Amino acid sequence: SYCCLVFPGRIYLSVSVRIALLSLQTLSSSYFTKQVIMPPITTTTIDEPSSNNFESLIFALRYIAKNVVRKLKHHEQKLLKKVDSVQWNSDNKIREAKVMRKYHLQNHEDYMKYNRMCVYIKNVAAQLKDLDSKSECRTESSEALLQKLYNLGIISTAQSLSLCEKVNVSSFCRRRLPVILVRLRMAQSVKDAVAYVEQGNIRVGPNLVTDPCHLVTRNMEDFITWADGSKIKRHVIEYSDELDDFDLLNC
Predict the structure, then answer these.
(1) Where are the beta strands (DSSP E) in the chain?
(2) In the chain, what is the straight-line distance between the N-terminal and C-terminal CA atoms, in Å?
(3) Facing residues of 207 across strands?
(4) Where are the beta strands (DSSP E) in 150-201?
(5) Model's pTM, two decimal places?
(6) CB neighbours of 69 closer than 8 A, spacing ≥ 6?
(7) CB 157 within 8 A of CB 149
(8) Does the pLDDT value for residue 66 go beyond 90?
(9) Which parts of 26-84 fold into alpha helices (H)?
């Protein structure tokens, strides 16, 4: 078969080429009875590549495209117009789906923003590492970057730039207000916490927050409480038997 002719050596190929060659191998014997002049092939390995092997591969793929694979119809061409058959991002999409489901991200743009921030932080840290260790600019910039990330809660300590390389999307998601509510045991799940925030039941300091994307800093984490007039707050107070006469009058 052509597979034996094309692959005398150990050559790594893409998935699409392997599928094409498998489809060629499963053809009837009538395709292989044709007298086709193949270029000479040597038995070289991946360590010693030969141009004849790649010429044979190109010849076989052209033969498949011409004699085996039918031409796509109009509606099939329209459907595959924006499909990239070379680069596959399935692994990234699986991780993205896990993170969005775990932290209940409602908008895909939020994940992309966090991802861009991670890339930006890693690039800045890499540029700072390239500077002279005795440079004042490197010292001041490194301290400012580490202190900023520590105040946001992205990193655990502000000691080394190596911590910036471990920053990922989950680091930002863990500082979202619904996740902090679950950590403070003000909600049983992230989904319930998102509903509490959107309904206007949560107050961070003096401000009422209704955006689940709100990132809570380390300083403001202790000032998260129920909003005034919230029915959940009244229910918690009644359960704790701390409701006074002023609250009973609904004033």
Answers:
(1) 202-204, 207-208, 224-226
(2) 88
(3) 204
(4) none
(5) 0.61
(6) 20, 23
(7) no
(8) no
(9) 51-67, 74-79
